[in-house]
From TrEMBL:
Keywords: Iron, Metal-binding. The keyword Zinc-finger does not apply. It comes from Acetivibrio mesophilus. This is Hydrogenase formation protein HypD. GO terms for molecular function: 4 iron, 4 sulfur cluster binding; carbon monoxide binding; iron ion binding. It holds the Pfam family HypD. InterPro entries: Hyd_form_HypD (IPR002780), HypD_1 (IPR042243), HypD_2_sf (IPR042244). The keyword ATP-binding does not apply.
């Protein structure tokens, strides 16, 4: 493959330290495994996962609040499947359901509207967890709730924005040399923000597609920049990502949400890292995340180190033994986008 040869050629000329590239998005992590990219590229390049799993970074106190609603008379929690097995301080939603709690899994957020209209006597709480990618859908939900005059459906949001987390990593985790930027998030945010980051932190930020060839091409661009001491943003996913992003989606997000500080599970408070319902919509807010949320890390779990790219999941002593998808200790093993779960499903443990 031409790009693989180009990577080898660049590395021949490069006499610096080994290169650590963080892929921020779980879909990239899965594709890296699916295409065997680690075995194709040089051992001088380390690919490491980042904080790209929204369920993994949602505080346990948020899950505790959902549990309270699930167990409350006349209430029903609506959620995507990924949230079901993540533990709060003691229990998960799956366990609350087994105790008689009212929890329903949704496949589309808009089906929450139908559920609320169909059962007007039930108070529904929708767990709106995600990044910039799902924020427009949650904004659309708000449009529908208001348009239909629905009074028995509220959102409990944990909507994070990825760029402040990446900035946090640039400032606090010196070992990351470059970023393979999250493709889906970039469709909404646009590529221009990454240029500021690349120049500020003097690291390559490359936006790549999800096919194996696209990822290898993005890795080549990162190696090329590092070996020639260039630090810039390069958008190699122009078919989907524009410079300014999806303006319509951004306007819709802006109508309902404002930027706020937030608590990230395993990390702590990150400034301006959440989208929270604006004060004028507080009646639709069932207790969204704030910087006052708290977290309990299960004993022995290294999710913080995994999320911050300090270790690969396989370096956690519990990986594949005490912690598996069937018996997950930490959130990174539970979610389909969590690094530990992806590593487990794709490794021969
Ligand atoms: Fe936490 Fe399990 Fe991942 Fe270890 S393998 S970091 S215990 S989720």
């Amino acid at each position: 493959m031409k790009t693989l040869e180009s990577i080898k050629r660049e590395l021949k000329e490069y006499d610096g330290k080994d290169i650590k590239i963080m892929e921020v998005c779980g879909t990239h992590t899965s594709s890296i495994f699916k295409n065997g990219i680690r075995s194709l590229i040089s051992s001088r390049i380390q690919l490491i996962s980042g904080p790209g799993c929204p369920v993994c970074v949602t505080a346990s106190s948020y899950i505790d609040r959902l549990l309270e609603y699930a167990l409350k008379d006349n209430h029903c929690v609506l959620t995507f499947g990924d949230m079901m097995k993540v533990k709060g301080s003691k229990l998960s939603l799956t366990e609350a359901k087994a105790m008689g709690g009212n929890v329903k899994i949704l496949y589309s957020p808009l089906s929450a509207i139908k559920a609320a209209i169909k059962s007007p006597d039930t108070q529904f709480v929708f767990a709106a967890v995600g990044f910039e990618t799902t924020a427009p859908i949650y904004a659309l939900m708000m449009e529908e709730i208001i348009k239909n005059g629905i009074k028995n459906l509220r959102l409990m949001t944990s909507i994070k924005t990825i760029m402040p987390a990446v900035s946090y990593i640039c400032v606090n985790e010196e070992n990351i040399d470059a970023f393979l930027c999250p493709g889906h998030v970039s469709v909404i945010t646009g590529s221009s923000l990454y240029r500021e980051m690349a120049l500020k932190y003097r690291k390559p930020f490359v936006i790549g597609g999800f096919d194996g060839e696209h990822i290898i091409a993005a890795i080549y661009e990162i190696v090329r920049q590092i070996s020639s001491k260039e630090y810039d943003m390069k958008n190699m996913y122009q078919s989907a990502v524009s410079s300014e992003g999806n303006q319509k989606a951004k306007a819709l997000i802006d109508k309902y949400f404002e930027v706020a500080d937030d608590y990230w599970r395993g990390i702590g408070i990150i400034k301006d890292s959440a989208l929270r319902l604006r004060p004028e919509y507080k009646d639709f807010d069932a207790g969204s995340t704030t910087s006052e949320d708290v977290d309990i890390t299960p004993p022995g779990c290294k999710c913080t180190d995994v999320i911050l790219g300090r270790i690969t999941p396989a370096k956690c002593p519990l990986f594949g033994g005490a912690c598996t998808p069937l018996n997950a200790v930490g959130p990174c093993m539970v979610s389909s986008e969590g690094a530990c779960g992806i590593w487990y499903r794709n490794s021969e443990v």
